[in-house]
Design brief:
By secondary structure, the chain is of the alpha+beta class. It contains four helices and six strands. It has a four-stranded antiparallel β-sheet, with helices on one face. Helix 3 packs antiparallel against helix 4.
Length: 184
């Protein structure tokens, strides 16, 4: 049964990590290089994320500076950013690309908080799906007479504790992100 609990913890941990990564890509009015993680540039026929082909730095609180290692990519990087859903126009000065993040409006903040809540719920659903999957494994072991009825009950209770721990983590991460968005 320990391997089932370890498997559940690992999979739920991956869900939390994925949620944190998703929250990192949310544009929160501050310059955050993670917003470029999903933006890809056609680099010799291969879609490549911007951080893999350029230096991305925060020069000011609301400005990102992107300096491609290959200067010929400057216009391709600018076009990829414009085509993405970031919603910021890149300024190309011939050497680097600057992204200036405008301050968030109250309406935009509320939209972002709605997205955060949606991601939070999706994370909770994923964690509960892992729990359900592991409970099915326990029931299969019970059916195969590998564990007793008491072991099944104990296993279900342990899985619920693990699930509660990860759901609480998700709620805390989401609350922190909401607070960050509303305080900017």
């Amino acid at each position: 049964m320990k391997e089932i609990f370890d498997n559940a913890s690992e999979r739920m941990g991956k869900t939390v990590h994925a949620l944190e990564k998703e929250y990192g890509t949310i544009r929160a009015g501050r310059a955050n290089p993670a917003v470029l993680d999903k933006v890809t540039v056609d680099y010799y026929g291969t879609p490549t994320p911007i951080p893999q082909l350029a230096s991305v730095s925060v020069s000011e609180a609301r400005m990102l500076v992107i300096q491609p290692w290959d200067a010929s990519l400057l216009s391709a990087v600018g076009k990829a950013i414009q085509a993405s859903d970031i919603g910021i126009n890149p300024q190309n000065d011939g050497r680097v690309i600057r992204l200036t993040f405008p301050p968030l409006t109250e309406d935009r903040r509320r939209e972002i908080v709605k997205d955060i809540k949606k991601y939070e719920e999706e994370g909770k659903i994923a964690v509960r799906a892992v729990r359900r999957d592991c409970i099915e494994k326990l029931k299969a072991k019970k059916k195969a007479s590998e564990i007793t009825e008491d072991d099944l009950k104990t296993g279900e209770e342990e899985l619920q504790k693990i699930t509660d721990k990860f759901v609480k983590m998700i709620e805390e991460i989401s609350r922190d992100k909401e607070k960050e968005i509303m305080e900017i």
